[in-house]
């Protein structure tokens, strides 16, 4: 797995909480730093794509592994 | 990236209908939108300090029920409270945020919330019934923002 600076476990949380928590975490991070997000909400896959597109942060990685979703978001 | 604007009119005061405005407002704020929500008529319930929102299946034929139930039974005393408790438990078990939590996130994200002064007066609410930080205004106040918005929704 790629390296990251901070991790956010949003397991068990449903829309829109994973996005809102990620936004909060990113706000406290510096440009270029990477946030690793873990989620169980299947809707989060599309939502994090949309989040990245609209905020300018880069979704470096999005993958699923046995019912969990993992994202790497690089702060712009 | 230029700032987008989302304007919402919230007119309903039930537990289920509290979600669309607060979810969209908080998410839009997280995406960098400037957001204003205008609460009018029953939507004012969503701004009260003590939220006591309920859900009912009466007149709501689309509400999924755990067991089929005749309408007359649904109208029995206590059914509304029971359904509200069941809905809240279900939401909690699915990791859905509470209305209080979403509203707090909106406040934190500086979503501008406006209570319709006319309906505040109509229902004899006092300004002190509502949470801190909201504004009071009328249609013209809302339209001033909504007229320049990218998205405008009536909920």
Rg calculated over all Cα atoms of chain A: 11 Å
- CATH homologous superfamily caption of chain A: TusA-like domain
SS-based class of chain B: alpha/beta
Structural class of chain A: alpha+beta
**Beta-strand proportion of chain B:** 15-25%
Query: Over all CA atoms, what is the radius of gyration of chain B?
Result: 17 Å
Low-confidence residue ranges of chain B? none
Helices and strands in order:
The complex is a heterodimer of chains A (76) and B (155).
Chain A: E1 6-10, H1 17-27, E2 34-39, H2 44-55, E3 58-65, E4 68-74
Parallel strand pairs in A: 1-2
Antiparallel strand pairs in A: 2-4, 3-4
Chain B: E1 5-10, H1 19-30, E2 34-39, H2 71-74, H3 79-93, H4 99-108, E3 112-116, H5 117-122, E4 135-137, H6 139-146, E5 151-154
Parallel strand pairs in B: 1-2, 1-5, 2-3, 3-4
Helix pairs in contact in B: 1-4
Please outline what is shown here.
With 76 residues, chain A is an alpha+beta fold.
Explain how this protein is built.
The complex is a heterodimer of chains A (76) and B (155). Chain A is of the alpha+beta class and 76 residues long. Chain A has helices at 17-27, 44-55, and strands at residues 6-10, 34-39, 58-65, 68-74. Chain A has a single domain (6-74), classed as Translation Initiation Factor IF3. In chain A, strands 1-2-4-3 form a 4-stranded mixed beta sheet, covered by helices on one side. The longest helix of chain A has 12 residues, at 44-55. Chain A is globular and about 30 Å long. The two termini of chain A are 21 Å apart. With 155 residues, chain B is α/β, with parallel strands linked by helices. Chain B has a 5-stranded parallel beta sheet, sandwiched between helices. Chain B is globular, with a radius of gyration of 17 Å. The chains are: A alpha+beta (76), B alpha/beta (155). The A-B interface holds A 12-17, 19-20, 23, 40-41, 51, 54-56 and B 1, 23, 26-27, 30-32, 94-97, 102, 105.
